[in-house]
Amino acid sequence: MAATVLLPSEFTDHTLGLLGLMNSDPSDDLLTRPGEVIPSHGATPEGIFTFGTGWKVSKTSSLFTHDSKRLLDAHSFAPSPDPVFVPAFSPPETPHDPLVADMVTACVVVSCGRLPPPRNGKKNGTRYLEGNTLSFSCDEEFILFRSTQRTCLEDGTWSGEQPFCLKGWF
């Protein structure tokens, strides 16, 4: 499985954990919680699994809410990781395998990040993935400058320029 996460540039050098440091240096992406770097070029699936479990979230803080007693009990009291869980490590995939190429193409999701509406204006659209287009307009008595539409591009950036609204001269 492959996944790509694209974050706005403000996150550069401000991330830590399973997704690496976001500093354009892949050699330090597998940084353990204690600060040890696992070299990615020699990492085994078992080593990466161990690395991932080292970043598990404690049971006292979770990224998720549990809306039933059963889910809350399962999360709060069950052993973690489950001792009966045994990951299935598959043989390495070769880049020349056509199935690998299809999988990589199918699994890449590109997000350009949220765009705010212009001050004294409106944004039409809430989808920020590759290929989506947002349009902008201004409130009455204001004139829109720069791009009236912006499209999320395959490289994770927005086309055009951030629009702004100025009071019209009528």
Automatic annotation (TrEMBL):
Q: Name one Pfam family in it.
A: Sushi
Sushi domain segment(s): 110-167
Domain of life, per lineage: Eukaryota
Looking at the record, the residues that make up the VWFD domain are 1-63
User: Coiled-coil ranges per the record?
Assistant: none
Keywords annotated in UniProt: Disulfide bond, Sushi
User: Where are the disulfide bridges?
Assistant: C138-C165
Please give the InterPro entries that the UniProt record associates with this protein: Epithelial_Barrier/Signaling, Sushi/SCR/CCP_sf, Sushi_SCR_CCP_dom, VWF_type-D
Gene3D superfamilies given in the database record: Complement Module, domain 1 (2.10.70.10)
Q: Which PANTHER family match?
A: MUCIN 4-RELATED, SUSHI DOMAIN-CONTAINING PROTEIN 2
What this protein is called in its record is: Sushi domain-containing protein
